[in-house]
């Protein structure tokens, strides 16, 4: 595997379900990101992890719970979601900051539908 | 506060036409980074270019070129001799130096017709 992979690619869940999204990067990066992309909103940053530590939480509701066990893996645990949470969830990775800002490499996304 | 504006929501051109995608940004930082990404129908954003605020040289990569002008806070992207495969949504983005928070514009959807 190369680049950034995400599973599952599509997910349909009810509002009472619990599910998890998985992201894995094979680029040797130390920073990983979760973004939400809705039909009528710009790409929204949700969470950032750098060297497994959370550095950004963009006021995301607690029904989204991230987990970063190591620099290569990132999870997004979902529970009691709302229909408005239906969106494309994108994972990305980049080199760590070191005073600069590096480009991000994105996975193909998980298309989530909440019914 | 940082902001990225892509005023063009959709652009439609015929193959072989040149097209320019506009990007205007706002930031109070003196050091910052600008990016362009391409999102084809498959959904995966693809990095195209990164430019830091101290490097105002324009860049050309094949049919792609970028014009960075600090005086007008713009970072425009031109595709020369467009092709159907260029059809995608293009995002301009802004990031502070040393940080991870990247602000994306709303995107411009480009349709290139054969």
Please explain how this structure is put together.
- The complex is a heterodimer of chains A (115) and B (114).
- Chain A is mostly beta strands.
- Helix content of chain A is 0%, strand content 56%.
- In chain A, strands 2, 4, 5, 6, 9, 10 and 11 form a seven-stranded mixed β-sheet that branches.
- In chain A, a hairpin with a 6-residue loop joins strand 4 (31-37) and strand 5.
- Chain B has 114 residues and is mostly beta strands.
- Chain B has strands spanning 3-5, 10-14, 19-21, 24-26, 32-39, 46-52, 59-61, 64-69, 74-79, 88-96, 102-104, 108-113.
- In chain B, the strands form three sheets. In chain B, strands 2, 5, 6, 10, 11 and 12 form a six-stranded mixed β-sheet that branches. Chain B has a four-stranded antiparallel β-sheet with strand order 3-9-8-7, with no helix packed on it.
- The model of chain B has no long low-confidence stretch (mean pLDDT 93).
- The A-B interface holds A 31, 33, 42-43, 45, 48, 50, 55-56, 58, 88, 90, 92, 94, 97-109, 111 and B 32-33, 35, 37, 42-47, 50, 52, 91, 95-102, 104-107.
